[in-house]
């Protein structure tokens, strides 16, 4: 019969302590797969991460044991499903360091979270003559919604440039920031370069001129401890599927005071207190921003992913991945004709490169023959490609289950690229 899901401790949840990738790999069934006769070496984690058994099992348990709609029924299964959904929000709020649970809104992902803020906060607060400040290393999902908002409101989009190493030019940030800046929207970690941006500093300077700050945490939340209050941001967005959770679920953190004052983004069931044909009174946070039946399965799976991340420890993940990145950087440097894209002061998750011998698409095809999955293309960050004068790059991106052996397999396959194309 239905299980009690709240605070459930799974047997396969790893114990906190130093990170042991060999042990953690056993939690991810897909990592045992072979690709074209070779063991899978999965280095496309910035696109999406693989899922631990704990997440897969949590989703299966939801459907086999307590599937029901939330907030709508007094019957037993609905109560259990509602409890699981609310518990997921509690875990997400704790994970991000929110002050209260209702500061976390479930969305489809980072993209929808940004669109929610652009539509709701943006259309309410941004006026002609205002400015939105973004950076030259944003993912398209943190560019296009602001472009559209500016077009609709008569505001101007300003862009902080990126230097040759892939760092933000902070002198230019200071120059561009002014009393007209309504919002600063900046990525925490670049998905194209791996740059970790100085968010605390950026937020403090933005607040000093009265601008709000949105942080795109799609590439930071899986790799380092995140605390929205320590960062000092007003909004923070991330995607479940990049954090070992399911696709189709993401988080928007917003300061309660701001979310409270914002109009709904979508409307319909679940987001109201009362409806007559004359007047609708909207629900309170967080339901005001969650119209319709939510992604219950997604929230349950994401909660299991957050449990998993917490059990491994974000500090341990950050330290382990940092040393793996250092290893990868020096291993890649010995591949003839390979150029790393940028050398940011602080890097997380991602190393991008080009090769004299072959186009990134050809590189990734040769690597695929060896079972090594990387990404080639513009990574939904075309302005970064333009900045570095390339149409595309090859990108290896790392997760807590990657090892030095994975890096060695990557390097060996890159030598093969040179043998074939040089
Ligand atoms: N921002 C960054 C930095 C990303 O890397 C991505 C995904 N590649 C997104 C936003 C969008 O995430 P999603 O597609 O999950 O909405």
List the defining traits of the structure above.
422 residues, alpha/beta, Aspartate Aminotransferase, domain 1, Aspartate Aminotransferase, domain 2, 2 domains, seven-stranded mixed sheet, four-stranded antiparallel sheet, globular, disordered N terminus, binds 4'-deoxy-4'-aminopyridoxal-5'-phosphate
Task: Walk me through this protein's architecture.
Helices cover 39% and strands 16% of the residues. By secondary structure, it is an alpha/beta fold. The chain has 2 domains: 41-49 and 313-421, Aspartate Aminotransferase, domain 1 (Alpha-Beta Complex), CATH 3.90.1150; 76-310, 3-Layer(aba) Sandwich (Aspartate Aminotransferase, domain 2). β8 (212-216), α8 (228-231) and β9 (235-239) form a beta-alpha-beta unit. α3 crosses α10 (296-312). The protein is globular and about 75 Å long. The termini are far apart. Mean pLDDT is 94; it is low at 1-13. 4'-deoxy-4'-aminopyridoxal-5'-phosphate is lined by residues 46, 109-111, 139, 141-142, 187, 191, 216, 218-219, 239, 380. 4'-deoxy-4'-aminopyridoxal-5'-phosphate binds at residues 46, 109-111, 139, 141-142, 187, 191, 216, 218-219, 239, 380.
Q: What's the number of domains?
A: 2
Classified by CATH, the class of the largest domain is: Alpha Beta
Strand content: 15-25%
| Mean pLDDT value | 94
Q: In whole angstroms, how far apart are the ends?
A: 62 Å
- And the CATH topology of the largest domain? Aspartate Aminotransferase, domain 2
